[in-house]
Amino acid sequence: MARPSYWTVEVRDRPRSGTQVRLYQAAGYRRYWDGEMARSLCRNCRLRPGAWSVPKRKVHALFLAAARIASQLESQKELPMSQLAIAAEDTESLPDRSREPWRSLAQRLRDHGLIPTRPRLLIAERVYSGPNHFTAEDLFTHLRSGRCRCARATIYNTLSEFAEQKLVQVLYVDNGPAIYDRTTAPHAHVYNMDTGEIRDADPQEFHLTEPRLPEGIMLEDMQIVLRVRDKNKEKGHV
């Protein structure tokens, strides 16, 4: 029975050079990580300063963790302006495929305290150029049809961030999925219970006024949904 191949893992944490993770074996193969990558690797794999031998199976787990962390760090990196237009290859509705629309989106995200990462820019572009009302699954389906795809979890998390920063508002109708609306100012909605369609109420048909609140209280959110049915359809019949 062949003996397992052992590697040496060395973690250095020095004031001037920072954290470093070194992986090497007797045959001469070496791999180094430093900076945020090394710090994240130490946190995820519970590595402490020192040097010790590990079997090949643990080295494989270390490489998998490093690949996952590298992907996460890349997705959180702010795109330089020279690369903002690359994401435009996935869009169909941008009238101007220059960098200017992406500069505007990037600045809007920054104004709301969000780093304009590639996934956020792709999602924000669809939010502001697509239908006014949409679900996370609608967004996932659209982005999946393009060249640059976002994971379903990334879309849900990003939309939650957008809602928290008041870039979109969230509507909950009956027991259906959350519906996102890019119009954040208070306004009423009309929900057709027969078709599932939701739209903004016409201000001429339904005038929404801000209620009078006690002193010291401010309005945080207001949602009014008018549920309607087709007059020609009786309840319980198609």
UniProtKB/TrEMBL annotation:
InterPro entries: FUR, WH-like_DNA-bd_sf, WH_DNA-bd_sf. It comes from Natronospira proteinivora. This is Fe2+ or Zn2+ uptake regulation protein. The lineage of its organism: Bacteria, Pseudomonadati, Pseudomonadota, Gammaproteobacteria, Natronospirales. It comes from the Bacteria.
